[in-house]
Each structure stands twice: as C-alpha cells, then as structure tokens.
Amino acid sequence: MADRIFGKVPEDQTPRPRQAAYIVIRRSGSVAVVKDGSMYFLPGGGSEPGESPIETITREVAEELACEIVVDREIGKAVQYFYSADDQVYYRMQATFFAGRFSTEPDGEFSWLSETSVMDALFHECHRWAVAEASNGRETA
Q: Fewer CB near the terminus (10 Å): N or C of the chain?
C-alpha cells in the first residue's frame, strides 16, 4: 500500500527530507503524548543515519520518556509535509507508525489524552491518522 500523504509545500519550496518513527500507546481510552512547547506529538521522532524505524522508536522513547516499549505491530507509513518555524524550513517527513505499550514505567514528561481530545491536540495530521488506525486494532495497555 502507498504511503498516506498529509500537508502541502508551496511550489517554490523544496522540502528537506526527514525519516521518523512514532508509536501509538493506548491505555483505558487514552493515548500517550509528549509536549514540545505548545504542541503535542506521539512519542518518537527523527531517525539517525542508518537507523531502522524500530531502532528509532526504541531510542526516541528511551530519550524522551526514560523507559522501554514493546512494539505490537506496524500501523503503516505516512508522509507529512510541514513548516518548522524553529528551523525556518519545510520538511517532507516520511514516518513509520507502530502500536505498542510501555514495558517499563515512563519517567519523562508525557500526558495521557482521551482519544477524543488527542485528535484535536496533535500537531501533525499524520499522527491523528495513526491514532485512528491504531484504534481499529486491539487495545495495547
């Protein structure tokens, strides 16, 4: 199946490529999110050179939340075009999404948002898509 595509870039801009991986962790009707400034994201982030999506998500969650995860399944892949005001550049983020759970208790800053409110809170449209796709599967608490 082809990647889902979200967002747009002005025709006169060339987006910078970015590989990433994120995980949807659900528990009792809520979804784990991390906050960066005023924006919410799924746990995860950008890949290091040569890193697989599983390696990325494992490292990112360890860095962000000081815990370990179990990946239950791959949800899918999506492309998100977006503008980063911090970097003043457009990105073409190709992300792989997983469903899973915490195998150790998180020690970093994160929140549980209800599945209803998380859809309004998440910054990237592709993250909202992944949460909706994960809800079609089984509970991962």
A: N
CA–CA gap between residue 2 and residue 89 (Å, rounded): 26
CA separation, residue 55 to residues 8, 21, 60, 115, 131 (Å)? 28, 9, 8, 27, 21
User: Which of 75, 84, 122, 96 lies closest to 19 in space, CA to CA?
Assistant: 96
Question: How far is the C-alpha of 66 from the C-alpha of 48, rounded, in Å?
Answer: 18
pLDDT in tens, the chain (141 residues): 567 999 999 999 999 999 999 999 999 999 999 998 889 999 999 999 999 999 999 999 999 999 999 999 999 999 999 999 999 999 999 999 999 999 999 998 999 999 999 999 999 999 999 999 998 764 444
**44, 21 in Cβ contact below 8 A?**
yes
